[in-house]
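Write out this protein's structure.
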Amino acid sequence: MFILRDKDDLKMKKIYLICLIGMVGFCLATIQAIACSCYWKGPFLAVAKEAPLVVRGKILRHHPGKSPAMDVLVFETLSGGLLDSGLTIQMGDGMHCRPMLEIFPPDTEWILAINGPGSKAGNGLAISHCGEYWLKVENGSVVGSIDGDQNQVTRMPLEEFKNRFLNLHLKE
């Protein structure tokens, strides 16, 4: 009788363990499900007009960790107001609709549309990944989805881009 009881206890422990593993798996799947998901709102020239701040700047350093961020030295403000030449921008952690730090290596130059729709800034500034809210600047040109489809990468001289961007803002 004791042997049978030990087998029943072992069987119950296995069932308990399987249920526990299942519940943990369900919880992890639920956390993944509440991670950011958004549709692509358009190319840079379409989405940047909704951002309160658009700057051209250089990535200085990354702050990885639980709340990843990057420091940006601002060379030029294309739209909005800015009181300082430095910004700290909150980046992607999987839960917010922001791009990951790795996209923006230190010492690279970018045009960034900050705090646009979907950016979920929280306590600071952020970039949304729900559209083309950033363009790389290299060799005097702007590169990315400037005014085309989601995966359509184009190159435009920086001065031509700035004129086009400013003309779009003046029309509003």
